[in-house]
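fyi for ur records
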Amino acid sequence: MITEKELTQAQEAFTKLREAIAAVIVGQERVVEIALWTLLSGGHLLVEGVPGLGKTLLVRTLARALGLSFSRIQFTPDLMPADILGTNVFAEDTESFRFVPGPIFANVVLADEINRATPKTQAALLEAMQERQVTVGGKTHPLEEPFVVLATQNPIEMEGTYPLPEAQVDRFLFKAEVSFPDKGELVEILRRNTEGEGITLPDPVMNPGDVLLARRVVGAYPVSGPLMDYAARLILATHPNGLAAPEAVRRYVQYGASPRGALALVFGAKARAFLAGRYHVTMDDIRDILEPALLHRIILNFRGEAEGITVKEILQEVVRSVPPP
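which gave:
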């Protein structure tokens, strides 16, 4: 049971967090919002955008403001699973093996350009994300909570990359697309980076306990039966063989969203309501979550790709076709 004091404490903490991030990151309000939904939901985030848009700075800022440990892993084709997870090394003083943790043992992990590593290395990371533990040499090592992975990938330069299989992409709770700044934002970026001492990361405004408390608060948010039913109907409408599928889904979609997509809708809707200062979830919360929750979970068929149909267009048609509760 969540008390009113705990609710107020969690909301005040996240208000300070948003202010701390805004003091460093120019624009990108939508991406920051999705990152906070991910953190509150206990999931992981896939961030897509061309180089130079501040993806790494956003993750470093988030980790610093949260008072959490941060680790960055630069994914390359020669990266091995042990480079991420850690390995057993022989200690001469004890004449025994001891485990040396890899960079995955941090609260906030930036997996930079995840699609540049081989499938074997990608799988090692995604297993840690799913199980919240690492097994090396037959011994299991739990990862410390809160634990969140923010993975980036470049949508333009595909040479020498290994696209994530659909089943592995599905393990990311949300996907965020980083857009190019407008003129005003670009001028502000120039000013902040070229005047004085440049960008300074914020001081911590939260701690791990605050994050875990906020997660408990968000988890306790009630969702009405009609809204649960609405979320389920939205998911079913993304399947081309479903009875409720609109014409665009039947024509252009090969695979619809998984049950993880339904979980992302509900978790994200709770987080959105919390950040908005409300104590209840609405239909608008679910609709606003739909794109980041399902953008990476809808697989177009050959016809859809050939005709240049986008997943965003499909999701818009799904919202129009599914009657509200």
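The CA atoms of residues 234 and 284 lie 13 Å apart. thats all i got for now
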